[in-house]
Amino acid sequence: MPGMTAPARALGVALSARWEGVGEPFTLVESPLPDDLEAGEVLVEIELATVCGSDLHTATGGRPAPSPGVLGHEQVGRVIAVGPGEAPRCLDSTPVTPGLRVVWSVAASCLRCARCLAGMPQKCLHLRKYGHEAWDDERPLRGGFATHCLLMPGTAIAAVDESLPAEVAAPVSCATATVAAVVAAAGPIEPGARALVNGAGMLGLTAVAMLSAAGAHVVAVDPHPLRREQALAFGASEAEPAGNPVGEVDVALELSGATGAVQSCLDSLAVGGVAVLAGSVSPGPAVQLDPERLVRGLNRIVGVHNYHPRDLLTAVDFITEHHRTRPFGDLVAGRYSLTELDAAFAAVRRAEAPRQAIAP
């Protein structure tokens, strides 16, 4: 938004960088902070947000989303108000009270439908996702690219330590928690297990760190030399270009969405091996599946989309313990204001870093 300046913000007023649709610049919009919170709602002042790849896909038309709306679903912030009644609790049972530093799930679930009751709240029949909702004049604060976010009932909330850098904490809401779900879906990681990670972007590097921390021998695969170098810094034992043979593996994680990478995961499984697919979130070509090999190999293929609330808690615990030993902070670049969101998205398109930071 060249030449755009932020207006002075009055007390009790929020600013949102509203997405107007594909090909349109972001618009800075003022809205009053709600003074009529409902039971279960939580108002958070955003400390820092990060631009996720899915935000870019939405903005460029790669994934459908209503417009106008507020994008952004990776952020860290501080609670400033809680709705009436009993205070919600964080995943570790900490009461949600003003002043608490928190991250929250990418979606809010009803907790009452058949899927929620079946243990799949991440696929709730009435799911609402931050950064994916249409603009609502009554409740506009539903995304991370704003000064505030109004959390809906059914949102998983996790407290984060004050010592955790904001650049490390913000991606936990999406990238880190998603990887926690992927690793959990693979089952217990045995020390010495051979693990393949296809795709060494933000998710892949996080997966490398989690698997190596569990004692696995990790083979990271990515076509880009810099990403392969980063994978070694995050604990990979080997880093190979796409297309190179990797041998048999006990665990194969696919986080890029590339058809060839999916095929490689399926073809690399050892007897008893499991493949977890999480990168294929857009339509693409089908891959070949040899059912006899699957049967005789006692293999499993698991899909992961969104994540269970428990995965958010796992992600917070992991990043708190390991952010000093792995260079997670290096994965977030820039420090853009809400008036510079177009420039931040341009930096993401140029792949300057896996994430760009937005400091409202």
TrEMBL record:
Residues 203-320 form the Alcohol dehydrogenase-like C-terminal domain. Keywords: Metal-binding, NAD, Oxidoreductase, Zinc. CDD domains: MDR_TM0436_like. Its EC number is 1.1.1.1. It holds the Pfam family ADH_N. Its cofactor is Zn(2+). InterPro entries: ADH-like_C (IPR013149), ADH-like_N (IPR013154), ADH_phosphonate_catab-assoc (IPR017743), GroES-like_sf (IPR011032), NAD(P)-bd_dom_sf (IPR036291). GO terms for cellular component: cytoplasm. Residues 39-151 form the Alcohol dehydrogenase-like N-terminal domain. GO terms for molecular function: alcohol dehydrogenase (NAD+) activity; metal ion binding. The keyword Ribonucleoprotein does not apply. NCBIfam families: HpnZ_proposed. Belongs to the zinc-containing alcohol dehydrogenase family. This is alcohol dehydrogenase. It comes from Saccharopolyspora terrae.
